[in-house]
Write a structure and sequence with these properties.
- The chain is an alpha/beta fold.
- The radius of gyration is 24 Å and the shape is globular.
- Helix 1 runs parallel beside helix 3, helix 13 crosses helix 19 and helix 16 runs antiparallel to helix 18.
- The chain has a four-stranded mixed beta sheet with strand order 1-8-7-6.
């Protein structure tokens, strides 16, 4: 194993381990999938960058690492290859079918080496899904067939292997080759959020704040500006990024850390296709961009004039938005408990000590003439404990095991506590924030 591949393997493994990411069906550590993809690529190519990219192909999408982190650790060439493998669609682009079409068009323009890694990824995912989940396999295989149509210039051996898997499993499920989904494909099942049955309410909540509400003004310099002078201005204004103009139009950006000698034209970067949002874009889209990049750029009246970094997610406006989402989810869990456990039969799933604590809180609220039910006085982990005891509730929530459900509740509680106590949510809870915002987008579109 070359030094580059070994470093990529170590980096990716640690990144996924830090968020305890596991394969959905086998519950194996996620690096098992990465190793399988890398082994498939290594079996047909000695391109060490392609093998390293196989290890890193999900790092930007699934962990707090950004493309800029990949570049800093592995160089521009490998970062560009990982970027080709990173989906560009956003939650606001529509349902799964629309997002998959956008990502398919993007990978169609990728290099043959990126398509080779994508083929290896499809092969390993197809094996796993077809083995464990026939229902989702019907969706995944149709999407796989559409992808194979644009991956023909990847490695021929892997293309034939992927095509064979696709054909075999399509035949096994009785699906015609080349079929397309005629109805809405796989979407996360909607939780009844606190009885807010009106879809427009949930949609309104997700759109109440927009990118322009948290964006910071972006300094702008001509491409011919001297780097030393620009650096001095940025340091004086405490800015880490600025836009670059060519012939009067903003064409890209530069980072303070990139400024050395020469002119801005020597070190500026072009905006990537998934890095720029309109000022009216939802905060869920902003978070999606910041999962991939250090900076999200914002346009007003068609011009890039603002920038958002992860630090801006700590702003009061975003914290209010996130706390509202957590509150709605918790209230939705209460509604589900009431449906699953009529006549307060849920009490048998809670320890007597936790029940007594809830009774004390209820009594104090009633003393203050505040009406509440006993279940409203339970702590979030108690509500989660009740639901994990119900197989049907676990299925509705999309969890395969009690352990996975308990971890999700623990992460949600951590985020809520950090929000309530004004702690840095970006450092502590970024992966949870990204998953939560995506989940809410899926719920509002359900």
């Amino acid at each position: 194993m070359s030094d580059l591949v070994e470093r990529a393997s170590d980096y990716a493994t640690r990144a996924h381990q830090r968020i305890d990411q596991r394969r959905k069906y086998s519950k194996q550590p996620y690096h098992v999938h990465l190793q399988a993809v890398a082994s498939l690529v290594a079996g047909v190519s000695d391109d060490e960058e392609a093998i390293a990219a196989a290890w890193l192909h999900d790092t930007v999408e699934d962990t707090p690492a950004t493309l800029e982190d990949i570049e800093e650790n592995f160089g521009q060439s490998l970062a560009e290859l990982v970027e080709e493998l990173t989906d560009v669609s956003k939650p606001g682009d529509g349902n799964r079918a629309k997002r998959k079409a956008i990502d398919r068009s993007y990978i169609a323009q990728a290099s043959p080496r990126a398509k080779t890694v994508k083929l290896a990824d499809l092969i390993d995912n197809c094996r796993d899904i077809a083995k464990h989940d026939e229902r989702f396999a019907r969706v995944y295989l149709v999407e796989m067939g559409a992808l194979l149509e644009v991956l023909g210039d990847g490695n021929e051996t892997l293309y034939q292997q992927a095509s064979g898997l696709y054909a075999r499993h399509m035949h096994k499920l009785g699906l015609p080759m080349g079929s397309r989904l005629e109805s809405e494909p796989w979407e996360a099942e909607s939780i009844n959020l606190a009885g807010f049955h009106e879809q427009h309410f949930k949609r309104m909540f997700m759109e109440i704040f927009a990118a322009k509400d948290i964006a910071e003004g972006l300094l702008s310099f001509d491409a011919g500006s001297d780097c030393a002078g620009v650096k001095a201005v940025l340091e004086r204004c405490r800015k880490t990024v600025a836009s670059v103009r060519i012939n009067g139009a903003v064409q890209g950006y530069l980072r303070l850390s990139d400024l050395e000698t020469g002119q801005c034209a020597d070190c500026f970067r072009h905006f990537t296709v998934d890095q720029v949002l309109s000022g009216s874009a939802a905060l869920s889209d902003v978070i999606h961009v910041l999962t991939r990049h250090d900076y999200c750029f914002v346009t007003l009246l068609g011009n890039v004039s603002g920038v958002i970094s992860r630090d801006d997610i700590n702003k009061p406006m975003v914290r209010m938005w996130l706390f509202g989402i957590v509150t709605m989810i918790e209230m939705g869990l209460v509604q589900m408990i009431k449906e699953q456990y009529p006549e307060q039969s849920w009490q048998s799933a809670v320890s007597e000590g936790r029940l007594e604590k809830a009774r004390q809180i209820q009594a104090e609220r009633q003393r203050r003439n505040q009406y509440c039910e006993l279940i409203d006085c339970l702590q979030l982990p108690d509500k989660g404990q009740i639901l994990v005891e119900s197989e049907s509730a676990m299925k509705r929530l999309g969890f395969e095991t009690k352990g996975a459900a308990k971890r999700a509740v623990k992460e949600l509680e951590s985020l809520r506590n950090h929000l309530a106590h004004a702690q840095d949510i970006v450092s502590h809870d970024w992966a949870q924030i990204a998953r939560l915002s995506l989940r809410m987008e899926e719920v509002t579109r359900a």
